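Quick question, first post here. What does this chain look like in 3D?
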Amino acid sequence: MLTRNSENDSDRQVRARARAIHAAGGLEPALRLGSVPKLIETTLSEALVLGLLKQGVAKYFAIFGHGSTDLGNVLRVYEEEGATRTINCRNEVEMAHAATALRWQYGELSAVVTSIGPGAMQAFAGSLAAASNGVGVYHIYGDETTFGEGYNMQQVPKEEQGAFGRMTAILGGSYVLHTPEAIRDALRRGALVVNHPYRAGPFYLLLPLNTQPARLTVNLAGLPARPALAKMAPAGDAELDQAAAMIVKASKIVIKAGGGTRGHDAAVRRLAEASGAAVALSPGSTGVLPDAHPQNMHVGGSKGSISGNYAMAEAELLIAIGSRAVCQADCSGIGYKNAKAVININGDLADSLHYNNTVALTGDIGVIAERLAAKCEALNAAQNKTAWLKACAAKKAEWAAFKRQRFDCPPLPDEVWGKAVLAQPAAIKIVADFAKTIDAAKFFDAGDVQANGFQIVEDDRTGDTYTETGASYMGFAASALLASALADRPRYSIAFTGDGSFMMNPQVLIDAVEHKVRGMIVIFDNRRMAAITGLQLAQYQAEFKTNDRVAVDYRTLASAVSGVQAVFGGNDAEALRTALKAAHAHDGLAVVHVPVYAGPHELGGLGAWGQWNVGNWCADVQGAWIKQDL
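> Answer (accepted):
Ran it through. Tokens below.
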């Protein structure tokens, strides 16, 4: 095996380019200055790094293996010269989540790098969260060699070509760089996927082991930059006038604010007030309307709330904005029992036409909502909605009283813990309130913590809560904290996670310390999969294999990692508040372990307020769906 102890001419050229790019402040400035020539001869690995730099991608989450050694060497040189940053991780799913969170929370595009085979498969699985939530991220995987000399270690052992390329193409955009000179096309396609304005997602670049070091001539000026896309909206006013007339005529209107409304807070609020509509949120859109706003009915859907589901069920006109109409959002298609027509504002053509009897307003949500609001204001469209909003306000008050009972609930005797402990709604509310006092972002993991969480949070703007309901990927919340290690302006964040979700990706304890993350993980430990236990009991009056008898001391477990501050959250509200203050005072990652109640007590949970096409409920839900005209 050959080894090199000093750089050759080619290596020195790579270093010189990296140094010049850093000095100029980017690839394009370096090209303008002439410090990097337009035409260069280099390897595919460096060409990819240069191409991503031109799109503004200078940050990498990586687990290197034999399938990525050449790319890793280029990234080493570029980091030494200050042109890129790479952080090494311990789990591919974890870093896929971290890259998703970096784009979702901070708007910063990065790339995930793995080896071939199992590592790529793990990252691919983790990318489901990005795909489900419309978050653009680059994934770069090692792949089988192109000469077909025999199986490469860890490739898919099948007598077929491009197995990973086909798998990744199903979930997002994909390109196998079988020919190094195709780098320009690959990056152009990738840029459109990861930067799509309405349905972004992961883009997978497959790098065969033998093409990474292959040399080619690259025209750096010809590599695609990040696309600058103009906002789109209907060309004329005909459809907007039709929609405004429908709003004037209707006396009961609900706006369903889907995940696509995130960041369009002002436009959604203006349209709600101009139309006199009640607003039902989706799990991922909390904060798009201030929590206390009288027209905010809170979350509606298969979990939902008293007020959100009431508004959905009673409205005669639905204004769907940025919604995919998933089961959590519209009760498997039967959430709008009295709606006769739909106005759908969405950038995606298929989503905008999901329901029948629809006026589809396709394009940028903010632009369209503002134009429609202006028309409604001119027509005084909200004037006949007073009775409707009064009825909705009564339901919101009912929901507030229902929640308050649970938030004020004293510790409940728990059979597993052998003592009284906080119920989960009360514990989550305490932590959510604490997060607001310190201006921390909140990440919610899958399961019962997530389901209670989006019913509990009281946000006044988008960007304060991230709940990964698209894929409900266990382990997302804790992994997401790692994003702050690469963020330009990191924000203190708190991961709300159950005991099961935390154990999916505990590697973040090590990576967070290694990369100096400051944040908090709160483990709500009920010693079971409480969301599924509750579903089993509701459907079949019996639980089955959703708990175990193994007690875990999470404080001791987390304390085993040097640099982690582990705190016991106690068994009552005052102890938990004290623990949160101690955790927040730590200059690094802190973990708070909170035992929580699981059982039949009515104050132990927040309940479900909609319908869902699962288990033995399917017949009823499908029967109702068949009768729906929408």
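Residues 416-598 form a domain with the Rossmann fold fold (CATH 3.40.50.970).
The mean pLDDT is 95.
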